[in-house]
Structure formats: structure tokens, C-alpha cells
Amino acid sequence: MAATAATPLLRLEKITKSFGPVQALIDVDLDVPVGQVTALVGDNGAGKSTLIKAIAGIYPADGGRILWAGRPVHIRHPRDAAALGIETVYQDLALADNLDIVQNMFLGREVTRHWALDEEDMERKARDTLASLRVTTVRSIRQPVASLSGGQRQSVAIAKAVLWNSKLVIMDEPTAALGVAQTRNVLDLVRRLADQGLAVLMVSHNMNDVFEVSDRVAVMFLGRMAACRPASELDVATVVDIMTTGTSTRLNNEGDRGAN
User: pLDDT averaged over consecutive 10-residue blocks of the chain (260 residues)?
Assistant: First the structure.
């Protein structure tokens, strides 16, 4: 069953997660449609990181349902997420500085031919993926990752995520610690992912970035989904209200998919 406008690619229903006596996620609902950037925002400790790690299979949910293109699925391990087409780009990027771009993009998933690495095939696929995303700032696909700027490293990490026929790309603070020009390049890349038909879930503290690139904004407060609306129906002041108090006098609370 394919995801449609009426059937989001990913749907979370009443997701819960506890760590001992601490309830990190409480009955969280969230839809993540294809072809859109869904921003996930909230104050420190709101549950954002736990939620994306539940989707990625690092912290399997204790309760609730996960539906993928309308079909219930179980995500108990990162392998389960990868098999569905879920790839996550964490803030630390998990790139190996001592390897080049191609080696990083295929790390752990190397292509072999006749018991040897197929360098030509890997180079072609890496080059094609970077070209499809219009990543043009790297000098060479054999350039060591240690020599890349922060924005270039983020672009390589995103390209690595989409290389594997991914359908949903989760990004944790993709513009953190980047300069203005690098941030612009990464936001353009995030937007291109959605425009190419992928679903994007982006965690960010930067409200300017959120409203520049996102179609929808999901706001968490103390482990709950406090609001989820089209970005056009929100503004920075309203989102900050919800992040800090769980609600806003500026918000009409009818019709939220994801608000509890």
C-alpha cells in the first residue's frame, strides 16, 4: 500500500515510552506525509530526541501503534527502520574523518564484485546521488571528510541517507553550528528532498529555519504532542508559547492531528 495525501507515509498513534519512572513520551500522535518537511520542535526535555529514536528503532516504543503507508509495523531495531526506508541523520553525523566521501557513503554497505570492492560502481552511485541533490560544493567525491566544511559534511551525511532508497529522512538539528551560507545550502537540500517526494522530519531549535523550510510544525511539550499544524497557520510567537506552556491563546485548538 502506497502513501497518499489521505494516508501519511508514517503515522504514530498514542506512542508511549518510559525510562524507569520517567515518562518520556505520553500518547504521542503524529503524521509525517510524503513530499513535505515536518518540523519537530520543543524545549529541551520535551521528548523530541526520544521520539525520533523510537521511529529509528533505537528506543522502541513501549506502547501505541506505528503505521507505515497505512499498514501497522513494528520497529524494534534500526534494521527494521532501514528495511522500511527510514534513514536518520544525527547531529554528530556519524562520519569517519579518515575516510573519503565515497567510503563514508558506503560504510558498512560496501558494494563488491568478484569478492573485491567495486570502487567504480560506488563512485558512480555516490556521484549520481550528490548530483541529484545538487550538492556541488565538494571538490571531489574522493575528498577526505576531514577536509570538508560543516555544511559540506552535513550534505554528505544527507546524501548518504538518501542513497539507500530511503522514503523518510529524519534530521536532528541539521543547521546547528553552521554559518549563514552553509545553512542556506543545507536548507535548500532539505527542501529538495521533500520536493523529490521524500518525507522529511526535521528537529530544530532554529525558528527561522523551521518557518523557512517546513510545511508543517509539530510542537512537543513535556512528552506530549501539544500541536501539529501547517506552518502557514502558525508564527514564531505562537510556537514559543506552546513550547513553554503547552498551549497558546493565539491557537484555535480545533482540528489538530497530533495534539493531545
Answer: 72 97 97 98 96 96 97 96 94 86 92 90 93 87 93 91 91 89 91 95 96 97 96 95 91 54
**Does the pTM exceed 0.85?**
yes
Q: Where are the domains of the chain?
A: 1-85+200-260
SS3 162: helix
Q: How far is CA 175 from CA 189, 205, 216, in A?
A: 11, 9, 18
Identity of the residue numbered 27: D
Q: Rounded distance, CA 43 to CA 115, Å?
A: 50
Residue count of the chain, please give it. Answer: 260
CATH superfamily membership of 1-85+200-260 = P-loop containing nucleotide triphosphate hydrolases (3.40.50.300)
Q: Cell triple for residue 134? A: 545538487
